[in-house]
Amino acid sequence: MRTILPFTILAAILSGANAIHLLGRVNPSNQELTWPGTGISFSFTGTTATIHLNTITGTNSAELTTDGIATIIPNINTTSITTPANLTHGTHTITLRKRSEALYGSLTIGNITTDGTLIPDAPPSRKIEVIGDSITVGYGLDGTLPCTNSAALENNPKTYAALSAQALKADYSIIAWSGIGLTRNYVSTTPDPSPVMPVRWTRYGANDADDSYTFPKAAVPDVVVINLGTNDFSYLGVREPLNATVYTDAMVEFVGVVNKHYPDATFFLVTSPMLSDAYPEGQAQKYTQTSALKAAIEVLGGMEVKVHLVEWPTQGSDVGCDYHPNAATHAVEAEVLADAIAEVMSW
C-alpha cells in the first residue's frame, strides 16, 4: 500500500534541503553523526517537526534544543525524534546534537518533516575546530566519581569546547576520541594499536577510511584548538615516560599538516587539566607538557604559523568518571579559552 504524505509535510521535505544546517564534521552524502557534538539545526514555522533517523548503531545520547530549551535523550532507541507537543503556532528553532562519542554508536539523519514550513537557517560566520581526547569528548562529565562512563554520562554540549564556542557566537566542529593521543594512546598492559589523532583527524566520519575527509571550503575554521597530551604522558608504571622532545616534534608536525589545509587559521594549544606536577611523584608532568608546548610554539612561530598557548590549571578533587573533568571544571576551562580566543581574534 502506498503512503501519501499530506501536502504540507511533502512540501517541507522538498523545500527543506537548503534549510538544514549540518553541525560539525558530517558528510552530507550520508548525514551520519559520528563525532561528538555533531548534529543538525533548522527553523520552521508551524507547531511540530520530526527528525527521522535512517539508521542507529550502538548506543547514542543526544540533546534536543527547542527554542533554547534543552531536552536530554539518554538513549535513542526510536526511528524519529519529535519536538515537544506543547509548541504554539509560530517560528521555532531546533538543534539536535550528539552528546556521546563514536565509540558508542552513530546516527544517520533522514528527512525532516513539519506541519508547517522549513525556513533558512543562517549559521554563524565564525568557525572553530577543536581536536582532542576524552576531555574534549565530555567523558563521564555527568557522572560523579566513582562511576562507570557510558553514552548517557557523556555530555559534549557541556564541554569547554561547546561552551567557549557558544560564548564566542561561533559554529564549532569537534574531532575527539577517548583515549587518543598525539604520539601514543592511553596506557594499557598491551599497547593500543588504534590510530593516533594525526591519523584519525583525516577521516570524514570517525570510523571512515583514513584520508576520507575532503576539507570543504565552507567548513574551514578560523580557529583550531588542540587539546592532546593527557594520554601521551600517562604511563602508570606500565611503560616508559614520554620523551618531551618526541611530543614537541609531533605537535609541530601535526600543526603543520593542519595548517596546510587551513592556512589562515589561528591555533590555540591547550595544557591538560588532568596532568599534575604532584602525581606521579617526581615526574612534573604538567610542567613537562607546558614546556614542550612552548617549545613547539617557538618552532611553529618560525614557520609563520599563528599559534598561542592556553594554560589550564590542574583540576580539583570534584571530578567525573575516571577522574575526568566535571561540568564545573569544563565551565571554568571554557571561560579561560574563550577569553584567550576573543583577545587574539578580536571577537
TrEMBL record:
It holds the Pfam family CE2_N. GO terms for molecular function: carboxylic ester hydrolase activity. Keywords: Signal. PANTHER family: ESTERASE, SGNH HYDROLASE-TYPE, GDSL-LIKE LIPASE/ACYLHYDROLASE DOMAIN PROTEIN (AFU_ORTHOLOGUE AFUA_2G00620). This is Endoglucanase E. Residues 23-120 form the Carbohydrate esterase 2 N-terminal domain. InterPro entries: CE2_N (IPR040794), CtCE2-like_dom (IPR037461), PCW_deacetylase/CE (IPR052762), SGNH_hydro (IPR013830), SGNH_hydro_sf (IPR036514).
